[in-house]
Amino acid sequence: MEETTDINGLTERKFLANYKAGDYERPSMAVDTVIFTVMQTKEANYRKLPEKELKILLIKRGGHPYIGSWALPGGFVDPDETTEQAAIRELKEETGVENIYLEQLYTFSEPHRDPRTWVMSCSYLALADSDGISLRAGDDARQAEWFTVRPYTVGQSIRKLDNGFEKITEYRLELICGDIKLSGIVRHTLLRTDKGVKNTYEITENNGIAFDHARIILYALERLRGKIKYTDIALNLMPEYFTLTDLQRVYEIILGKEQIKAAFRRKYSVLTEPTDKMTSDAGHRPSRLYRRKWLID
Amino acid sequence: MEETTDINGLTERKFLANYKAGDYERPSMAVDTVIFTVMQTKEANYRKLPEKELKILLIKRGGHPYIGSWALPGGFVDPDETTEQAAIRELKEETGVENIYLEQLYTFSEPHRDPRTWVMSCSYLALADSDGISLRAGDDARQAEWFTVRPYTVGQSIRKLDNGFEKITEYRLELICGDIKLSGIVRHTLLRTDKGVKNTYEITENNGIAFDHARIILYALERLRGKIKYTDIALNLMPEYFTLTDLQRVYEIILGKEQIKAAFRRKYSVLTEPTDKMTSDAGHRPSRLYRRKWLID
DNA sequence: CAAATAGTGTCTTTGAGACATTATGCG
DNA sequence: CGCATAATGTCTCAAAGACACTATTTG
Question: Of A168, B69, B87, B207, whose CB has the highest number of CB atoms within 10 Å?
Answer without folding.
Answer: B87
